[in-house]
From TrEMBL:
<feature type="compositionally biased region" description="Basic and acidic residues">
    <location>
        <begin position="105"/>
        <end position="126"/>
    </location>
</feature>
<dbReference type="GO" id="GO:0006355">
    <property type="term" value="P:regulation of DNA-templated transcription"/>
</dbReference>
<dbReference type="InterPro" id="IPR010985">
    <property type="entry name" value="Ribbon_hlx_hlx"/>
</dbReference>
<dbReference type="InterPro" id="IPR013321">
    <property type="entry name" value="Arc_rbn_hlx_hlx"/>
</dbReference>
<feature type="region of interest" description="Disordered">
    <location>
        <begin position="83"/>
        <end position="126"/>
    </location>
</feature>
<protein>
    <recommendedName>
        <fullName>Arc family DNA-binding protein</fullName>
    </recommendedName>
</protein>
Amino acid sequence: MGGKNSYESIKRYEDKAYDKVLVRMPKGRKDEIQTFAAQTGESVNGFINRAIGEAMGESPRQPAGAPQGEGAILTPAALKTAQEAAQRAGETVPAFVSRSVETQAQRDKVMQAMRTKEKAPEESET
C-alpha cells in the first residue's frame, strides 16, 4: 500500500467522495468545451458541474479560477459576445471583461463631467 499521495490512495479517496459519469458527445465538442472552460478560468470538470448545477436551478457560481468576491455572471449572450471579442483581441475572457469595464467606467466619468458642465449654465440663468 502506498503513501497518501499514491495512486491507490487517491483512487480510494475519489471512489468514496465522487460519482463518475461518462459523457459522450460529437467529435470536436470536447475541444470546444476545453477552450471555453480555459477562457473562463475553469477546468472542464468544473465547467460541466457548474453548467449542470445552473441548469438544475442551483444558484450560479463563479468559475473556479475567478477571484472570490469579485467578478460578474454574464448572460449566455453577453458571454458569447465577450468570448468572441476577447479572441479577436488575443485576451482571455476575464482580462477582456476587466479591461472593458475599466474603459467604460472612464467613459462614464467623462460623460458625467460633460453633463455637469452643460447643466451649470442653465442653473445660473434661473
